[in-house]
Amino acid sequence: MKKTILVTGGTGYIGSHTCVELIQAGYDVVILDNLYNSSKAVLKRIETITGVLPKFYETDILDAEGLDQVFSENHLDAVIHFAGYKAVGESVSKPLTYYQNNIAGSLNLYETMKRHQVYNLVFSSSATVYGDPASVPIREDFLLGPTTNPYGTSKLYNEQILRDLSKAEPEFSIVLLRYFNPIGAHHSGLIGEVPNGIPNNLLPYIAQVAIGKRDYLSVFGSDYSTPDGTGVRDYIHVVDLALGHIKAIEYAFGRKGIDAVNLGTGHGYSVLQIKDAFQKACGKKIAFKIVDRRPGDIAECYADTTKAKEVLGWSAKYDIDTMCQDSWRFQSQNPDGIND
Ligand code: NAD
Ligand code: UD1
User: Fold this and answer.
1) Residue 280: strand, helix, or coil
2) Cα of 232 from ligand 2 centre, angstroms
3) Hey, whose CA ends up nearest to atom 11 of ligand 2?
4) What is the model's pTM?
5) Inter-axis angle of helices 202-210 and 320-333, to 10 degrees?
6) Is 151 a known active-site residue?
7) At a CB cut-off of 8 Å and minimum separation 6, what does 283 contact?
8) Ligand 2 binding pocket mutation candidate from 98, 181, 215, 238 (most atoms within 8 A of CB)
9) Distance from Cα 13 to the centre of ligand 2, integer Å
10) Considering every ligand atom, which ligand is closest to the CA of 232?
């Protein structure tokens, strides 16, 4: 029998790509999203790619009754939980809003899962839980925290809450996926990342310079102890990341307990290397200026991918040129986002 997966935050950036891969892997998908940071038009795009229009609930995870309705009306086998706020800077100025949405909302979801005996969960965590790592590549057994902002802390707390839940309720099977830096878009150019306002993250910012919405890229620091002095990150294609979720769901179905797995490529690229790769992909010069370091940034962050290979049988396959080409295709085909 086909298994049904509830995807919270399923019209968002990573959620929409994961829904496409779930449908293509033969799962039924139910999406729950309050459309705070995404558009209903994404559903049609998913249908265009897969031939299937997913069932959709415009529901907030803070609404316990609404959640209960979704669980009552569907026979769910598992949940992939993407819904949450993710802007680091905003989390510093609005900590209560972030804790309310990312913690209280998640507690509602876990409580509802328990009541309806839906025990399989994949949670969107982040490499940010490692804080400033002692060394790279980062392994899953490295010390966690301290985090430098409420967004990161909300991920760390969710992980701890889920570890406690797993201890108390051994029926649960939970996979914590710690994403590195997701970029790129579906090869069709139909779905991708639509930043809200001025982008905080590197790739969306570069893409907006390329289409002429921004004048130049500010490179945050060139005096790090990295090969060219700019920050190094592990950029991963969002489709690879989505495929990692399919493996994580299969892993969850075959076991009980809780486990944490990095999703990255294991390769680090500097800001200037990314700028160059994007220039190649879009055929335009990206103007840039070196400015001061961004507070809270670390020099280098990339994953040890051994565990993902061993326990999930997954590794990333797309290279940095493909990531930039796919980002550019989405950006140039959808200069004003996904609104139709
Ligand atoms: P996104 O903002 O595109 O998607 C999140 C979705 O959740 C949005 O569609 C939004 O409308 C929805 N949402 C937010 N609050 C909600 C609520 N209370 N109820 C229902 N829906 C709600 O973000 P994304 O980049 O796709 O990230 C997905 C998840 O992955 C988030 O939890 C994020 O913290 C985590 N993550 C993202 C990155 C990244 O770089 N994008 C890195 C690490 C972890
Ligand atoms: C950011 C988040 C982190 C989250 C991660 C995953 C911050 C402080 N951290 O990390 O919590 O888990 O995304 O998506 O936002 N850069 C520039 N100019 C820019 C933007 C970025 O030089 O305009 C540099 C940064 O200094 C960094 C690199 O590009 O070296 C990547 O930055 P970004 O895309 O914001 O990701 P992270 O800082 O890794």
Assistant:
1) helix
2) 10
3) 128
4) 0.98
5) 50
6) yes
7) none
8) 181
9) 16
10) 2
Q: How far apart are CA 216 and CA 122, in angstroms?
A: 38
Tokens of 149: 């902002």
Can you read off the two tokens belonging to residue 153?
Answer: 């802390």
Which candidate, 123, 124, 146, 152, places its Cα nearest to that of 134?
A: 146
Q: Is 182 close to ligand 1, i.e. is its CB under 6 Å away?
A: yes
Residue 328 CA: distances (Å) to CA of 44, 58, 195, 211: 21, 30, 14, 9
Ligand 2, from 294, 298, 323: best to mutate by most atoms within 8 Å of Cβ? 294
How many other CB atoms are found less than 10 A from the CB of residue 139? Answer: 15
Pocket flag, ligand 1, residue 33 (CB < 6 Å): yes
Per-residue pLDDT of the chain (340 residues; tens, 9 = 90+): 899 999 999 999 999 999 999 999 999 999 999 999 999 999 999 999 999 999 999 999 999 999 999 999 999 999 999 999 999 999 999 999 999 999 999 999 999 999 999 999 999 999 999 999 999 999 999 999 999 999 999 999 999 999 999 999 999 999 999 999 999 999 999 999 998 889 999 999 999 999 999 999 999 999 999 999 999 999 999 999 999 999 999 999 999 999 999 999 999 999 999 999 999 999 999 999 999 999 989 999 999 999 999 999 999 999 999 999 999 999 999 999 998 7
Burial class (CB within 10 angstroms; exposed 0-12, middle 13-18, buried 19+) of 168 = exposed
Gap between the Cα atoms of 49 and 17, Å rounded: 10
Q: How far apart are CA 281 and CA 329, in angstroms?
A: 9
Catalytic residue among 85, 110, 119, 151: 151
Q: Note the ligand closest to the C-alpha atom of 82.
A: 1
Q: Is the CB of 299 under 6 A from ligand 1?
A: no
Say yes or no: CB of residue 15 within 6 Å of ligand 1: yes
Q: State how far the Cα of 63 lies from the Cα of 245, in Å rounded to an integer.
A: 26
